[in-house]
Amino acid sequence: MVIKTLSLINYRNYKHLEASFNSGLNFIYGKNGQGKTNLIESLYFSSHLKSFRTPKIDQLKQFQSESANIRMQVEKQSVINNIGISIIQDRKKVSINNKILGFSSEFIRNFFSILFAPDLLSSFKEYPIERRTFFDRILYVTDTAYFQLIKEYNRIRKQKAILLKSQSMNELDIWNRLLSDLIPKIIASRKKLVDQINNKLPLIYQELTGRSENLQLCYFNDFQDKIEPVPEIIFQFLSTKKEIECAKGFLFYGPHKDNYWMTRDGIHDKISFSQGEYRISFLALQLSINQIIKQELNFYPVLLLDDIFSELDESVCEKSIHHIFENNNQVFITSTSIPDQFIGLGNIYQIESGKIIN
Ligand SMILES: Nc1ncnc2c1ncn2[C@@H]1O[C@H](COP(=O)(O)OP(=O)(O)OP(=O)(O)O)[C@@H](O)[C@H]1O
Ligand SMILES: [Mg+2]
């Protein structure tokens, strides 16, 4: 996938931007606060239909503007698509080739980008819900049935929550049965993705660091001590928890509470990763996902790497660049200065006050 052109009107600090990009490397540099992350955010927004910095869509409009517009020309597998997004008040309207979009899951599946950004990293590190959302979005892309599965799970979960809030145990069995049918499928999809990632993650981590440690992604669910999480066993488990859930008034068990974390040589990231090591591990995770998308969907997603070099030592930077260039991705990298090794490798853009000046 290649973003060929981008036009922004009243997006964050961009009054009006028209840019065309290289199908390989695009290096964006400029002083602090000039609009580098805003540009990356607009590209991410145009492929995920959400920002990684705010859930509030109206913050994307320029201060005091009524609306914002993003237009992009994207080439994927030799087909060119024109994407248009208008943001008016707190709503977005998305069109592809002038046709208004119906389902956003289909859109994400078609225009996937992979982001490395300090804001995403800190929320990923901090909150289990952010990690679940992160891996769910990959599954929406790689597993066609998964989106419906989660939609159905959430629908039933809401019904059960209403019952629990009213402290009524009647009818709980009906909803527990329905949940028990869905839960094994959700767990199986999540496990499969984690296995796919773990086939790649340690090797990429070793390549980026030159170290021999074993980086692994771990996945936890409420049913993993069961020999086999089949519907009947899950139903029995949920039946034994009816009273606890009723007393608490909310669903206490299920995939909405699942968790992910990383380990290095078996030790939990929380207690053993330095700041820089967490950054490298997250980068290795994103680069593993890049290979899985290529394998499953046969296209390279766009790589958006915001402020990737801060806190990484020179050797890791060099090895990361080497790995990134071995693949055929279109890449956007931002930084406050251009390292020598990038000169002559692709397009270089200097940003100042929401404008490309060079
Ligand atoms: N809705 C908005 N309207 C106008 N300006 C905005 C809006 N939101 C953010 N800005 C401004 O955009 C500027 C650029 O922000 P951005 O995060 O892109 O900077 P940056 O170039 O990535 O800087 P750094 O190197 O510090 O990461 C900031 O000064 C910010 O105040
Ligand atoms: Mg920035």
CATH architecture of the largest domain: Up-down Bundle
Report strand %: 15-25%
The pLDDT mean sits at 94
Examine the coordinates and then state which fold CATH places here, giving the name of the CATH topology of the largest domain. Glutathione S-transferase Yfyf (Class Pi), Chain A, domain 2
Main features:
single chain; alpha/beta; Rossmann fold; Glutathione S-transferase Yfyf (Class Pi), Chain A, domain 2; six-stranded antiparallel β-sheet; globular; binds magnesium ion
What does this structure look like?
The chain is α/β, with parallel strands linked by helices and 358 residues long. The protein has two domains: 1-112 and 301-358, P-loop containing nucleotide triphosphate hydrolases (Rossmann fold, 3-Layer(aba) Sandwich), CATH 3.40.50; 127-297, Up-down Bundle (Glutathione S-transferase Yfyf (Class Pi), Chain A, domain 2), CATH 1.20.1050.90. It is built from eleven helices and 15 strands. The protein has helices at 36-48, 104-110, 118-126, 128-142, 146-165, 172-209, 231-240, 242-248, 269-272, 275-297, 314-326; strands at residues 2-11, 14-20, 25-29, 67-76, 79-88, 91-96, 99-100, 113-116, 215-220, 259-264, 267-268, 302-305, 331-335, 347-352, 355-356. The strands form three sheets. A six-stranded antiparallel sheet has the order 2-1-4-5-6-7, with helices on one face. A six-stranded mixed sheet has the order 8-12-13-3-14-15, sandwiched between helices. A hairpin with a 2-residue loop joins strand 10 and strand 11. It is globular, with a radius of gyration of 22 Å. The mean pLDDT is 94. The site of adenosine-5'-triphosphate has 16 residues, from helix 1. Adenosine-5'-triphosphate binds next to helix 1.
